[in-house]
Automatic annotation (TrEMBL):
Entry coiled-coil feature ranges: none
InterPro entries in UniProt: ABC_transp_permease (IPR001851), LivM-like (IPR043428)
Protein name per the record: Branched-chain amino acid transport system permease protein
Source organism of this protein record: Variovorax soli
Keywords: Cell membrane, Membrane, Transmembrane, Transmembrane helix
Pfam families: BPD_transp_2
Residue intervals passing through the bilayer: 28-46, 58-77, 83-100, 107-127, 177-197, 227-246, 258-277, 297-316
Subcellular locations according to the entry: Cell membrane
Topology in the lipid bilayer: Multi-pass membrane protein
Amino acid sequence: MTRNPPLAATSTAPAAFDVVRNTAASRVALGVAVALALLAATLPFWGESSWMREFVEFACYLIFAMMWNLLAGYGGMVSIGQQAFFGFGGYVMLMLGNFAGVNPFIAIPLGALAAALVAVPVSFVAFRLSGGYFAIGTWVIAEVFRLSFANVSAVGGGSGTTLTALRGIDRATRESVTYWMALACVVAAIALVYLFLRSKRGLALLAIRDNEVAAESQGVPVVRMKLAVYGVAAFGAGLAGALYFVGNLRISPDAAFSVNWTAFAIFMVVIGGIGRIEGPLVGALIFWALNKFLSDYGTWYLLGLGLMAIVVTIFFKQGLWGFAQQRWGWSLFPTQRVLVDGGRAPRP
């Protein structure tokens, strides 16, 4: 009688796999980004003041668009009222500087923190709504903020007021420090969003966006995660608002709580690619360039923005970067985990 050989002698051990979280493009992009950041940090020593002011404006657009993308593109919460936290952060910065004697540059993160804190009670109202009702509800909340500050005479009422806390600082120093603050905020915003989306909480956020019921059935704390993302997005919006009005030196309710801020953020994210970290970067660059060179054409400029948005949504449904990623596989900020054969599988 012939006996079968032992199982271990005939079976093959399972192949070993590696978890790849970076790509060649992302490693090159990291090196280029570090080099550009270091070069940009030296701009106040050799560049013109107009360049620094342009970058501060671009940084505010980019940070605000990134936070809207985090909230809507990754969290599935489409808000058209994020200007509420943009303006709130700006007003808190101004009040701390003008009335409390706090250095306005220190008041920038404090204004952002105040925006995140006020987002908690606001969420109790906003989260009672869903879908289109949530979007309209956030807009109404922003209008409540605007009307509330318009009736506060201490901050200039409806006509607004000027940031006087920076009067003792010479113009060159003020512009340089504002520029460095903007650069630091951009780097921090990109890094924090990227690290968050690569974590387990980022995976939970994507699960909530795709299907809240299914995510909750798998143990994902849906309400807590949505509140956390809503607070982070409010913090970023408040940071952008405080930074913008430090550079602008004047604030008013109509400027701070204008729905145009969210409209421009939606434009940038849709053009670049919603649900991608690179999307707001590409969209902010395009929007800044169009605003810089074509804004003098008045209504034709606005028509051009609308026409571009229509063309992109029809022919590039995932945005310009989404198209490039599908076509050539570019991913500067990969958040997915890919299993590849590690080549270490033992042979029989």
